[in-house]
Specification:
Elements: H1 3-19, H2 24-80, E1 83-87, H3 100-114, E2 123-130, E3 133-143, H4 149-152, H5 160-169, E4 183-192
Antiparallel strand pairs: 1-4, 2-3, 3-4
The structure holds heme C (HEC).
Residues 46, 49, 58, 61-62, 65-66, 69, 86-88, 91-93, 96, 142, 144-145, 147-148, 150-152, 175, 184-185 line the site of heme C.
């Protein structure tokens, strides 16, 4: 077969491959990376949070959540070529509002939790089509642990000093009233394909 004929045959196949998005292997690799990135974020933030609470008390640890969380998310975004952030339907940071995909993903994860799945391993992902092209989307549940209650629990769990700081820094705070085992929010990961 002559070269032009080969190209004529190969081109539609290549175009079809583009239109159908990433291969199964590519999707598996992205999901594995998203698990690594979200796992690293959770581990690093959790470690720094506990250390800060021990060293500076819960009030002093507020800055870890405020400053370190976005920094660690930015580090993971750079390292894995993702857009990594934390969102919650009951957000504290005004920028932490979930979009439609994120809200639906968290609701789905909460259903699976209620059906008996382990909170630590709850995640989901999808390739979605947007007007700007295809995107890889990933969500990992952030389950509430006892340590979270100091700043996200009910009125009896949160020390007065923390309440005062939260009221000043986050006047529109919705992120209280949680109990262990609930889903506080998600690590949301996105990549344009
Ligand atoms: C020392 C107080 C403190 C503790 C303990 C704490 N948080 Fe937070 N959390 C905050 C603050 C402050 C913010 C807002 C950070 C910001 O400005 O981006 C926040 C924000 C969040 C967000 C981002 C979405 C939003 O509401 O803005 C999630 C998700 C979250 N926390 C989950 C947790 C989980 C899960 C734990 C336990 C493992 C935890 N937090 C423990 C203070 C705390």
């Amino acid at each position: 077969m002559k070269a032009p004929a080969l190209i004529a045959l190969a081109l539609p196949v290549m175009l079809a491959a583009c239109a159908s998005g990433p291969s199964a292997e590519e999707q598996a690799a992205m999901t594995a990376d998203a698990r690594k990135a979200s796992g690293a974020l959770i581990q690093k933030l959790g470690g720094e949070l506990k250390a800060a609470i021990n060293e500076k008390g819960p009030e002093g640890a507020i800055s870890v959540c405020k400053e370190r969380a976005p920094q660690i998310a930015a580090d993971m975004s750079k390292q894995f070529n993702f857009d990594v952030k934390r969102v919650s339907p009951k957000n504290r940071n005004p920028a932490g509002v979930p979009d439609a995909w994120e809200a639906e993903a968290q609701a789905g994860l909460e259903k699976r939790l209620a059906a008996g799945e382990k909170p630590e391993t709850l995640d989901t992902w999808q390739i979605v089509s947007t007007p700007g092209g295809k995107q890889f989307r990933y969500a990992k549940a952030l389950p509430v642990q006892p340590v979270c209650l100091t700043c996200h629990g009910g009125p009896a769990d949160i020390p007065e000093g923390v309440k005062a700081r939260l009221a000043t820094e986050y006047p529109l705070d919705k992120a209280t009233g949680y109990a262990p085992g609930m889903v506080r929010g998600i690590v949301s990961i996105k990549r344009s394909l």
